[in-house]
Design a protein that fits this description.
This protein is α/β, with parallel strands linked by helices and about 290 residues long. The chain has one domain. The chain contains 11 helices and 8 strands. The protein has a 4-stranded mixed β-sheet, with helices on one face. Helix 4 packs across helix 6, helix 4 crosses helix 8 and helix 7 (about 185-195) packs antiparallel against helix 8 (about 200-225).
């Protein structure tokens, strides 16, 4: 995966590693890519995530650490992006924002960048307190993407999602949830879930699959616009990652059985298909 030669921009990044949040309660869970805490836990109850790992929203988010060291390290040389996971993710974050800014402008709209927040172990968010066990997530109230870098190892070792572009997919998926906030989709789904409690899981699956589709659209547009050069092998890495975090794969690994009625993110086949739809069409409307 080849990037453009622009410097890594950390202006939209918060580095909370080493600061810590007030201890999140609970343990023994498994990271789930794309969990929207506010929607799936605080409002309608979690999927595979123990709701005791979170406390209600309303707490003050803790101060962020300096990104000066991160900026210097990520721009220290041509190998820095590939050498450091955090630098790679920040560069992907930069390209995500650039692509969506251009696409929103083309569609006559204005894109508002989310914040990318790194943390370790636990973090205070606009959605409440969260443990790193919930995996990367997006919080609509504060419009931040939260990620514990350690999840990247789990993605490869536990779920078998190998390759750098698998990591890009994770971040692009979370940015897809940000698009849903900007476009009003998340708000509409929350209202539908409250009005139709029996459809909570079905609606959350639809939201997750759309975020997968948006991630695919980004990959197509980024490659087309020259922000990044993505090979067929790297697209396969993203497709593999999408499949690896399907509800059926995760349930089989963690509990030895599959319960489709409890799906909150979609099956491996559904997630792969949704990403393919986006990457093939390069059209946001194809994800509706």
């Amino acid at each position: 995966m080849k990037f453009d030669n622009r410097k890594v921009d950390v202006s939209g990044v918060q580095d909370r590693r080493g600061i810590g949040g007030r201890a999140a309660i609970g343990g023994g869970g498994v990271g789930i890519v794309g969990l929207i805490i506010y929607v799936l836990v605080a409002v309608v109850g979690g999927g595979d995530v123990d709701a005791t790992k979170l406390v209600p929203p309303g707490n003050q988010v803790q101060e962020t650490g300096s990104t000066d060291d991160l900026k210097a390290r990520c721009n220290s040389g041509p190998d820095a992006i590939d050498k450091y996971d955090d630098c790679y993710l920040v560069k992907v974050y930069n390209e995500i924002n650039e692509v969506w800014t251009a696409e929103f402008s083309r569609r006559g709209d204005t894109y508002r960048e989310p914040t990318l927040a790194f943390f370790t172990d636990a973090v205070d968010t606009g959605c409440g307190q969260a443990s790193s066990q919930v995996g990367p997530f997006y919080c609509p109230p504060d419009e931040r993407i939260y990620i514990d870098i350690g999840f990247l190892d789990q993605l490869q070792q536990q779920f078998g999602a190998q390759g750098r572009y698998a990591q890009a997919y994770v971040l692009a998926h979370e940015a897809g949830h940000h698009l849903q906030t900007l476009l009003g989709t998340e708000r509409k789904l929350r209202a539908q879930q409250q009005a139709h409690p029996d459809q909570q899981n079905q609606l959350s699956v639809a939201l997750e699959l759309q975020a997968d589709c948006y991630a695919g659209v980004w990959s197509r547009l980024a490659d087309k616009q020259g922000n990044v050069t993505i090979s067929d092998a790297e697209l396969d890495q993203a497709l593999n990652a999408a499949s690896a975090v399907g509800d059926d794969r995760i349930q089989q690994k963690t509990q030895g059985r599959v319960d489709p009625e409890s799906f909150t993110h979609g099956s491996a086949a559904q997630r792969k298909k949704s990403f393919q739809t986006g990457s093939t069409t390069g059209d946001l409307d194809a994800c509706s």
